[in-house]
């Protein structure tokens, strides 16, 4: 569901471009230096930011970037982060833009892990190309992911899960972790997203898949 437009978002976003980038290409090839980390995580479609905020504090030695194209959601996430008492922004930033342009923002092999949390399922076949796990996106992720870099995806949507498994296997990734009811067991090592908490409250199973980039023979 689309978020209601926040009237304050536009001016707020323009005043905070040192935390939430609208032109992330200025940091291409320099993200690890900016965030003082050896391992870089990128969450695409970070929504209101709970996952990014919690994971960046749980894994403070790693770098975390949240990408969100919806201005109201992005502003809500960034404001939440910047106003949270004691929150350390040294290892995290956000990007307000469409991930279709991700190759302009990251160098080859700059990213260690991409997170796709409860991405829009786009059920109609005509729109499958918009899915963040579709071939066009995977071709881009393969370029920015380092050797053996990973994509970690969680969803409540069985059809998106099944289709994505096929996209991954057909496009140069192999499965390293897999669950059709991830939250059946406690996973304190992984933060719960806004959508995830709603689906868990409804008793829906959470699907998880983690895949690794396969070495290609040149
Ligand atoms: C269903 S919401 C899930 C939000 C959050 N990850 C969660 O689990 O609570 C999907 C989010 O992905 C964002 N999104 C979808 N396609 C995107 C794209 N191409 N680039 C950046 N953000 C995108 C949407 O704007 C939306 O906020």
Which stretches are low in confidence, meaning pLDDT under 50 for 5 or more residues running?
Answer: none
State the CATH architecture.
3-Layer(aba) Sandwich
Q: What do we call the CATH homologous superfamily?
A: Vaccinia Virus protein VP39
Bound molecules: S-adenosylmethionine
Report on the biggest sheet. Answer: 8 strands, mixed
What is the CA-atom radius of gyration, in angstroms?
A: 17 Å
CATH class: Alpha Beta
**Measured distance between first and last alpha carbons:** 43 Å
Proportion in β-strands? 15-25%
By DSSP, the count of extended strands is: 8
The average pLDDT score comes to 97
Structural class: alpha/beta
Supply the number of helical segments: 7
Shape: globular
Q: Per CATH, what is the topology? A: Rossmann fold
- Succession of helices and strands: HEHEHEHEEHEHEHE
Helix content: 25-40%
Strand order of the largest sheet: 1-4-3-2-5-6-8-7
Counted up, domains total 1
Folded structure, characterized:
- The chain is an alpha/beta fold.
- It has one domain: Vaccinia Virus protein VP39 (Rossmann fold).
- Helix content is 30%, strand content 23%.
- The chain contains seven helices and eight strands, in the order αβαβαβαββαβαβαβ.
- It has helices spanning 9-15, 31-35, 50-58, 71-83, 135-144, 158-170, 194-201, and strands at 20-21, 40-44, 63-68, 92-96, 111-117, 145-155, 173-179, 207-213.
- An eight-stranded mixed β-sheet has the order 1-4-3-2-5-6-8-7, with helices on both faces.
- Strand 2, helix 3 and strand 3 (63-68) form a beta-alpha-beta unit.
- Helix 1 (9-15) packs across helix 4 (71-83).
- It starts with 8 loop residues before the first helix and ends in a 5-residue tail after the last strand.
- 39% of the residues are buried.
- The mean pLDDT is 97.
- The site of S-adenosylmethionine (SAM) has 21 residues, from strand 3 and helix 7.
């Amino acid at each position: 569901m689309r978020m209601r437009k926040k009237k304050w978002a536009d001016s707020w976003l323009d005043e905070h471009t040192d935390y939430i980038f609208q032109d992330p290409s200025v940091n291409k090839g320099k993200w690890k230096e900016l965030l003082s980390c050896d391992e870089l995580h990128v969450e695409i479609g970070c929504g209101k930011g709970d996952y990014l905020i919690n994971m960046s504090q749980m894994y403070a030695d790693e770098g975390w970037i949240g990408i969100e194209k919806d201005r109201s959601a992005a502003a809500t996430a960034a404001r939440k982060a910047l106003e949270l008492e004691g929150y350390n922004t040294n290892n995290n930033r956000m990007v307000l833009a469409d991930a279709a342009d991700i190759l302009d923002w990251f160098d080859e092999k700059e990213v260690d892990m991409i997170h796709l949390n409860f991405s829009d399922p786009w059920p109609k076949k005509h729109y499958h190309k918009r899915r963040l796990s579709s071939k066009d996106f995977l071709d881009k992720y393969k370029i920015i992911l380092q050797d053996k870099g990973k994509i970690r995806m969680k969803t409540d949507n069985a059809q998106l899960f099944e289709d994505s498994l096929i996209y991954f296997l057909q496009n140069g990734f192999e499965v390293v972790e897999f669950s059709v009811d991830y939250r059946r067991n406690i996973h304190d090592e992984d933060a719960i997203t806004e959508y995830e908490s709603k689906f868990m409250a409804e008793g829906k199973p959470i699907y998880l898949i983690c895949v690794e980039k396969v070495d290609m023979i040149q």
